[in-house]
Amino acid sequence: MFFDRPESGTRALIVHMxxxxxxxxNLAEFQELTRSAGLDAVCSVTGVRKRPDPKYFIGTGKxxxxxxxxxIHEVQLTLFDHELTPTQERNLEQALNCRVMSRTxxxxxxxxxxxxxxxxxxxxxxxxxxxxxxxLVRGWTHLDRQRGGSGxxxxxxxxxxxxxxxxxxxxxxxxxxxIKRINQRLEKVRKQRQQNRRSRTRxxxxxxxLVGYTNAGKSTLFNGLCNSDVYVADQLFATLxxxxxxxxxxxxxxxxxxxxxxxxxxxxxxxxxxxxxxxEEVQQADxxxxxxxxxxxEIKTNIDxxxxxxxxxxxxxxxxxxxxxxxxxxxxEPRIDRDDKGIPWRVWxxxxxxxxxxxxxxAIGEILAEDVIETSLTLEPSHGQLRADLYARGAVLNEHxxxxxxxxxxxxxxxxxxxxxxxxxxxxxxxxxxISLVLNK
Length: 441
What we know:
Elements: E1 11-19, H1 27-36, E2 40-49, H2 60-73, E3 77-80, H3 86-96, E4 99-101, H4 103-114, H5 118-136, H6 167-202, E5 206-212, H7 218-226, E6 243-249, E7 253-259, H8 269-274, H9 276-283, E8 287-293, H10 299-312, E9 320-325, E10 335-338, E11 344-348, H11 357-368, E12 372-379, H12 384-392, E13 396-401, E14 407-414, H13 415-424, E15 427-431, E16 435-439
Parallel strand pairs: 1-2, 1-3, 3-4, 5-7, 5-8, 8-9, 9-11
Antiparallel strand pairs: 6-7, 10-11, 12-14, 13-14, 15-16
Helix pairs in contact: 1-4, 4-5, 5-6
């Protein structure tokens, strides 16, 4: 006799237990995850335990309470805000006659819904397969049934083919093969990203990555800065695939701005492994813009959760700029907060209403700028491409056209950025009271 898993549905019951030292876990966050997955949480069951029960995770009394709520509310899916072992998941489904899903499985489901690019879909599938591989071990009794051996040919005696491969072994083999193929494809993606980073390094282009607790407004900020159309919605993990755009920042020139997936507390390690290629962009960024929802009740807690994930992916030492977003909801004015050395460490903005965006760009420029110079530059009419390049970098403070057609520009930017712009234009500079230009020989 084998056990078939119950059918799933959208009517869900949430189980949230405070186990051991987990009293600080966020039930509201898990309820938001449930909503983001398109599920209807019709009821919740909470409780306290010193340690998980090895058979059901919860005690028998709580199990009976959950079963009663399932019958009353006609629940089709029970969500545990915890990690369950394969055996616990199987035992719960047998006892409750209801599909059971853990926190990791729910996040994987949301990621599967959000992935849009080929790379994102591969990463999600890899995480799902790794999770499914653990569910096969002692997961379902029907997987122990054997498939008959084929023997060594038509004349082989009965039984010489052996017992054959069990369904469990076949599933494990197929999953292993698929994981290997996905890893090979993602390795190509990783190498391509490394090549892109080397190209940016040679061109001296800095990378700024937007990070933050999910639904803090990163994608809204990204769209406002880059005139982009990244998907924005009031839900967790609205953005899954990373997006890159070029952004001019005075006085350093262009930077690459990266919009990344939002973080939550206890982001499963399987997901971190699967998204290694994407998270490398965070690890190797020149600056992390940590976007915070200024209207959130648990601001400090959300900041701490993001920093925990950054430490997990070895990005905790990368420079950060805190950006308190959604100030329109708390009646705040845009401003820059500076440390005792005068360096910006926090900016207050509203990305939705474009408040404080100039202060935000100014803060990035101040943090990243090195060896900034302000000088005059005289260009001939034939230097139009260089003029356009300087304007694109946001380096031109003012401009005056002389009677002979020469353009007198007052510029402010990094010395090495100016040298790069001149090389790109095939020119070199002569230092003096201003800067005169001659063709490179």
